[in-house]
Structure formats: C-alpha cells, structure tokens
Amino acid sequence: MTRTLDPLFAPKSVAVIGASASPEKAGYAMMQSLSTFAGPLYPINPRAGEVLGHTAYASVGDVEEAPDLAVLVVPPAAVPAALEQCAAAGVRGAVICSGGFAESGAEGEALQNRVAEIARTTGIRVLGPNTSGFINAADAVCANFMPSVTELAAGGVSIVAQSGGVNLALSFMLARANVGLRIAAGLGNAVDVGFVDVLDHFAADDATTAVGLHIEGVSDGRALMAAVRRVAELKPIVVLKVGRNDVGDFAKSHTGALTGSYQVARQALAQSGAVVVETPTELVDALTALSQVRLPAVEAPGVGVITGQAGPGLIIADSLASRHVAVPTLAAATLTAVSHLLPPLTYQKNPVDTGRPGQTFPAIVTAVAGDPAIDLLAVYALDEPGALDPAGALAGAAVPALFASGGTIAALDGRRAALSAMGIPLFDSPDALARGAAAVVDDARARLRLRYAVAEHDVWQHGRPLGHVLDENESKQLFEAEGLTLPARRVAADHTAAERALAELGGPVVVKVLDAAITHKSDVGGVHVGVRTAAELAQALETIDRIPGAPGARRYLIEAQAERGVELIVGATRDAAFGPVVLLGVGGVDVELGGEPILTVAPFGREQALDAIDRLPQSIRAGHRGGVAVDRDALARVLVAVGDVMARHDDIQEIDLNPVRLTSAGPTVLDALVVTAPQENHAN
After folding, report:
1. Under a CB-based contact definition with an 8 Å cutoff, are residues 227 and 196 in contact?
2. What is the count of structural domains for the chain?
3. Are 152 and 179 contacting, i.e. CB atoms less than 8 angstroms apart?
4. Domain CATH for 628
5. Has residue 294 got a pLDDT over 70?
6. Could you tell me the CATH number of the domain that includes residue 352?
7. d(CA 381, CA 357)
8. pLDDT reported for residue 594
9. Which end is more exposed in the chain, N or C (fewer Cβ atoms within 10 Å of the end residue's Cβ)?
C-alpha cells in the first residue's frame, strides 16, 4: 500500500472515468481541464470512441498501463464499483467529484462508508468524494471540473480547503492578487485523504513556499494541530476557520462535518503556529505577504510605516493598532536623520509622512529601516507620474518591506515584476497592506510560541482516570498537590466538628455544604460568608441542614475567608475535537471588563500561560480599583496546573476554579469544581 500523495497530485498518467464527448457533461469539462496535462490521458467510457482527440477505453482495466491517477466523474451509486476496478487495475490515486454521499443522508452515508473501506483495504489514495478536485498549476495537472483553472499562473502558494468551492474561490482570488499557485486541493468529504495528509505533503514539498488552509469542521483536532505545526516550522501557514455563527446544520449538509467550537479551533491552530484569519480576503492578503516575506521568530516585531500621503498612512496605522501590531516611535538618531530630509510640518515619529514622494524618499526608507526598533517596513505611495520608482526607493532597506500603491492596473503591473524580484509583495490598497503586515508579524509571534510548546506525551503518558465524583474538598486537594494557593480549611462531619474548625481557623470563615452532588451551592443556600461567632455558625449550619437532598448527616467545609480582591475565572473543558482546553476570564463585579474568555489548548507551559495572561485587560493586570496586581508567574502556575490535571485524568470533563481571587498571597483558589464522566465510560 502506498501512502504518498505523489500519484494523486503529480501523476505520470491520468484516466477519466465517465469521460464524455458531450459538452454539457461534467466528464467533458474534466477532459478539458486536463487538456494541458503533458502525460498520457485516458478517457474511460464504453460508449465513446474518442473524447477531445483521445481514444476512449471501455474500462480502466483495458488501458495498456496502469494510470497513476483516476478521476471519477460518475453518479454516486456507480462510484464504489468504479473505484474497485481502478484499484484492481493498479491505479494508485483517485479523485471522486460526485456528490450525494454522507452530506445527503443515510443512503449516501452508506455509499461513503463503502468508498472508505475500499480505500482502506486496497491502499488507493482517494480525494473526495463531493469535491471539485485539485489544481497543480506548476505541473499543469488540473483534475477539476472548471476548465478555466488551466489559466491560473504557477507559483509557490498551496491551498487545502475543506470545500471544493472554496478551493476554487481562493485560487481565483489569489490570481487576482497576482499570487501564483503550486497546488490547490478541495477535500470534500475526505473519506481518505484529509487535512493531515495534504499538509504533510505541502510541508515536504520544496516548491511550496506558503500554505493556506480552509476549515469548516474537524474531527481529530490533535492530529490537525500536529500537522499544522509541522508545516509552520518550515513555512508560513494561514488558516481560515468558518463557524463564528451557528451554521452547524448547513455545514453538515455541505461536507458531512460539524463546525465545532469556533474559538477553540482558532486558538488551537494559532497555538500550533498558524496565522488565523477571519475572511477569504484576509487569507489572500496574508498569503500575498508571507509568500515572499517571513521574519525571524520574535515576540513583538516593530513595523515602520512610511507613506507618501497622510490619509492612507492613517488607515494603515489604525488597522495595525487594531491588530495589536507595534508601530514604535523611532529612535532619536533616526528622527534627527528624517528631520533633515522632510519639511517640519510632516509627521515623522512613525508613521513617517513624506507629504509627497520626492528625491529624499530612498534616504528616508534607509533611515527608518535602520532603526533598531524596526523589523518590517510597510510603505505606501500613489503611483504619480515621475514621483517615485518603488524598486529603487526600497533597494536600500535593511529589513523586509511590503509596498502598496494606488494607480491603474497597467501602472501597478509595471511595478510588480521589479518589486517581486526583490522579494517585495505589492498590494493595491492601504488596508490590504496593513493586513499583510499584520500577518507577517503574527507569523513571527506564532513561531516563537512553537519554541515553548509542550509535547503531549510529557503529560499524557501519565494519564489515569480519577474513577469517582469529587466533592469540593477532594477537588481542592487535587490542586493543592499541584502547589496552588488555597485558603486554610477544615472538613466537619457534624456541628461539633464545625465549631472546633471555627475555633482553630478564627473568624471570619466561609461555611459551605460539602456534597459532590450539589454543584451550585449558592443557589440552594449552601454558602455562608463572614461567619465569626458560634451563633452565626449555628445559623449557617441549620440553613445548610435544610437543603433538600439525600438522607443522612450533612458534611460541611469550613474555610478561612480570603481578603478582598479582583476575581478571575479559571476553568477547563474537554472539546470533542481538540481535547482539554483551559479558559481564563474576569469574574465577579469586574466581569464586564473581561471581554471574551481567553482559551489555551492543554497541555501547555509557562510561556503560553503568560501569553494568555497578557491578554487580560491592562486594568486588571495592573490592579483594578486599588486591588492587587496580577502576579504573572503565580497565575501562570494556576493555568498550567489546570491544563495538566485536565490532560492527566481523561475522565475529567470540566474544571471550574471560580473564583480565583488576586490576593497579597498570590492567586488564591476559593472554589473548585471537578466534573468527571460516569465511571463505566472509562473502564480499562
């Protein structure tokens, strides 16, 4: 059995099963698309003597040699038999364009299962079904039902899209941006060849310089993360994840896959080294930049913005700021040099506004590029007649540069070749330039994060189920063993023991019901704060005793009351596709300051935890309303511990440390909830 995708994407010979001489048929369009293929092309159709100048064969078994690739353009019911014939004839790769499989209902799902079984048992590599196919522009192999794809220019960008339609849309968008294609593949229902296979193929392909990935839904998120990382370590990868809104039913009808958690997927892919974008336009702008420019792995690359016109420069600076890209103030020496080159009324600190490009523009570029805080240039200038030669102006830049201009298509096309020869991508608008620059910066940050990634086996090799439902005290013991800070506490089995606990701890204390079956204690009167006296304790205990529930004596948790402070929420859940995910957010009365929760896929280490902490609001990190500032290292230990515990015990479904209060003793876990799956689900 062969696992390589070379017979699929770089075949020496191709057969088209269902080829047709009728122009209205899909089999005719596929033959047209493959007309540029330089190797032998075999139309398979028992009723056609010739198709587009090629002799037709009744069966793939009748061909003198076994074709490397078969493209199946037949009705879905005919696909299993045709695929079996291809495998028997020695065909090593197949593209199934037909729809009507798992995306269409139970009958189609049964057909798809049969196709998957044939691929598994014979070793033939299958792309699809329900796909438009693929485009190998570099080798002129276009197994796609749109013949116009043969006109797409070859280049270094490869695409893998879950949808064949999106694969085509992105390919044509890249062409309009004058970015050439290496390979573009639509997975469709992916019964055999999936994301991981194609990404690994791109990672090993020296001709691929950057990768674009479109995802609707994913089943094995961990395998996808590993594949994305393998690519990112070698070349840039940009990901478009669909599913911000509730379109799950539509996605299932489309590809047979659910979209899953949008935010978890985005974080998982970013953690794996990808640049994650929200729209196809952003993906194209990112690939336009990253196909030619890649910075070293650094934490906060500085962008120097140089503009020939103030208005576009403001758009660029504003867009970069919204994407948290640093546009640092230039050093004093740089400012002095620039001030000698520009009139005093222009803004010169960064962005540098030249007013109108003139003879000093190249010297300005050289000065800004030489500033120690600048890692990348983003330059904009209108293509005014005689005002500026972009290639000449940027020739002296000591750092990589991106260039954008406004002008006619002919004028910009005239600039593009010279700039491309210098490794400088050309954009046609200030906002596209900003998106491209932000992608280059995001890629540099992502590569740095990869250095600190934690190997899963370092934690998961010790995995073991807890085996039972934990009450709050047992949950806290779990995190106490991880070295986290918790208030002093006592477990009391009766009122006398509770009175003794109050005496030992001193007031004030928090009195709680201790019962693993009661997960929302406050809702049923199971939490009493500020208890100082025996009378107050008795009243709290009597209230807890009245909580309905299982018969028998109540147990109580008596806990020293922590000092006031800002409250955070640290939790974890087990995502169906990506596994353990840790959440950090703002809780209590400050919850409105927190925005969306900050997610990190576990296990992870200190550096990734610090990255999550640094995304908390600045006011919280600095000490909100006179509270204690965040101890970054101590809070990082909390996040890492929660991730490790979640990863280590595979029957934990949810962890909720709420709140974690910021106190002078450090982040203190005031409440802990650990939810486990039923024990019978984790036998053996």
Report:
1. yes
2. 5
3. no
4. 3.30.470.20
5. yes
6. 3.40.50.261
7. 7
8. 61
9. C
Same domain, 595 and 494: no
Q: Which of 501, 509, 498 is nearest to 555 (CA)?
A: 498
Q: Kindly report the CA angle at 292 between 427 and 341, in degrees rounded to 5?
A: 60
pLDDT at 558 over 70: yes
**287 near 181, Cβ under 8 Å?**
no
Show the tokens assigned to 174: 């890249």
- 620 and 659 together in one domain: yes
Token pair listed for 520: 């929302």
Answer yes or no: do 109 and 37 share one domain.
Answer: yes
Residue among 636, 642, 597, 600 at smallest CA distance from 616: 597
pLDDT at 58: 96
In order of 479, 514, 657, the CA distances from 672 in angstroms are 9, 12, 5
Whether residue 659 is preceded by a cis peptide bond, meaning omega within 30 degrees of 0, is yes
113 CB-near residues (< 8 Å, 6+ apart): none
pLDDT tens track for 338-385: 999 998 888 999 999 998 888 999 999 999 999 999 999 999 999 988
The Cα–Cα gap between 476 and 493 comes to 18
Q: How far, in Å, CA of 215 to CA of 446, rounded?
A: 19
- For 569, the enclosing helix (H) or strand (E) is strand 567-575
Under 8 Å between Cβ of 44 and 17: yes
Does 462 map to a domain? no
Between β-strands 426-427 and 54-55, what pairing exists: parallel, antiparallel or unpaired?
Answer: unpaired
Residues in contact with 446: Cβ distance below 8 Å, sequence separation at least 6, in sequence order: 232, 270, 273, 274, 275
Q: Is 206 found in the same domain as 316?
A: no
Could you tell me the CATH number of the domain that includes residue 525? 3.30.1490.20
Does residue 242 sit in the same domain as residue 319?
A: no
* 142 assigned to some structural domain: no
| Residues comprising the chain, all counted | 684
Domain extent, residue 511, equals 488-560
Cβ burial 85-106 (10 Å sphere, 16+ → b, else e): bbbebebbbbbbbbbbbbbbee
The structure's pTM equals: 0.91
* Torsion sign over Cα 381, 382, 386, 390: positive
| Distance from C-alpha of 185 to C-alpha of 283, rounded to nearest angstrom | 16
